Amino acid sequence: MSTRRTFVAGAGGVVVSHLAAKQAMAANDKLRIAVIGTNGRGKDHIQGIMQQPDAEVVTLCDVDLKVGNARAEAFEKKYGKKPQVVQDMRRVFDDKNIDAVTIATPNHWHSLAAIWACQAGKDVYVEKPGSHNIYEGRKLVEAAHKYKRIVQHGVQLRSSTAVREAVEHLQKGVIGNVYMSRGLVFRWRPSIGKQGVVPVPEGLDYDMWTGPAEKEPFSRRIVHYNWHWTWNYGNGDVGNQGIHETDLCMWGLGVKGFPSKITAMGGKFLFDDDKITPEVLTTLYHYPGEKKLIQFEVRPWCTNSEDGASVGNIFYGSEGYMVIKGYDTYETYLGQKKEKGPSGKAGGDHYANWIKAIRSRKTEDQHGPVETAHLASGLAHLGNISYRLGRVLNFDPAKEKFVNDKEADTHLTRNYRKGFEVPAKV
User: Fold this and answer.
1) Listed residue (40, 12, 35) closest to 100, CA to CA
2) N or C: which end of the chain has fewer CB within 10 A?
3) CA–CA separation, 385 vs 381, rounded Å?
4) What is the four-CA torsion angle of 388, 248, 56, 102, rounded to 10 degrees?
């Protein structure tokens, strides 16, 4: 499975062409979609797809059969249909009756699963972060373009009518020259305690769950949700909830790539537990050539909000500032007296946008194209690398390498387990 050639051999045929995919869709009134990973965000994927008039979920894939079967039972009760349940995602990619997949696995699987799906001729909706490290994010972009797949990144706020309107105001200069953006992730994250090593529960394929990552002894500090707080599988909260905000920081500022200088500081201050990633983290991303700055802050416990935003973004301009709260609300304040400017509140449907782009085969129809998966996720990765190394880092955005810093470069990728490698040539 480490290369396209071995994947195609496993799939038992050639990669589905763009034309063949369109013909299959024309023959079937509804897009047939598989949801891979059904325990967390996957539940929202199921609901979101089943709300689309021209798409349906036909397969649920989960390495934990207990979870997958429970989700299938709930699905049948709600929708009156019985989905197929499989444990190994490779069976999904082998299935030529499936047009597209959504991926809601743990972070360490996102890029590889999406690349495999592209190689199998399937369109993809992949949860944030689109990558676990910068190397595999770039490979995902390459795979999407090579196989002409519609790869949608799960940054739902890009489909919010209010947020899109807010960014238009920023681009038109409503608050003047926008020189700084601030991302906020103030989420209540309690202690996970000390879990210890326990037997792998019945029904869980822990080897497949581990996939491309280094395999650790099974523990509840990892499966099912707490993997977020380990470097081996997750990326901390800046790489969890924070990807929505890193994406919006870059989008609203109008920067097209990575920063050239990064610094971060934080740590664990509250709990003596099994979390490895920092509870509190502050990061600065500097774009000196564009005279732009991104600030990002993660707080896990008792804290204030900032002008009503606790999870969101603030943009600072020469004529005022804008606060974006969550996924659907923005407010603008102008001048020294903070006079109220444009504001709005409205949501959107990111799944509907993905389906539209699949039908049109036009990446320009996408609100969350594959490039956002690489850039928004990569920004979080750069901040985490600076934190882990404890120093300011200089980065070359064109080469996507650190400047004369071999130690930092080792964090741009990982050692992949045999059979689960992200290929150099997709």
Assistant:
1) 35
2) N
3) 6
4) -20
In angstroms and rounded to an integer, the radius of gyration of the C-alpha atoms of the chain is: 21
pTM, full prediction: 0.93
Query: Residue for token digits 């490290």?
Result: 133
Give a three-class secondary structure readout of 292-314: EEEEEEEECCCCCCECCECEEEE
Q: What single letter denotes the amino acid at residue 28? A: N
Nearest to 408 by CA among 387, 422, 423: 387
**Residues in the chain, how many?**
426
**What are the backbone angles phi and psi of residue 334, rounded to the nearest 5°?**
-115, 135
Span 305-358, pLDDT tens digits: 999 999 999 999 999 999 999 999 999 999 999 999 999 999 999 999 999 999
Helix segments in 12-125, DSSP class H = 18-27, 41-50, 65-79, 89-94, 110-119
Q: Which uninterrupted H or E stretch holds 187? A: none
Read off the pLDDT of residues 34-82 as tens digits, 9 standing for 90 and up: 999 999 999 999 999 999 999 999 999 999 999 999 999 999 999 999 9
Compute the distance between CA of residue 120 and CA of residue 238 in angstroms, rounded to an integer: 31
- Please check whether residue 154 is in contact with residue 125, taking contact to mean a CB–CB distance below 8 angstroms: yes
CA distance 237 to 207: 25
Q: What are phi and psi of 398, to 5 degrees?
A: -70, -45
3-class DSSP state for residue 180? Answer: strand
Domains and CATH numbers, the chain: 4-157+351-367 (3.40.50.720), 160-193+229-346+380-404 (3.30.360.10)
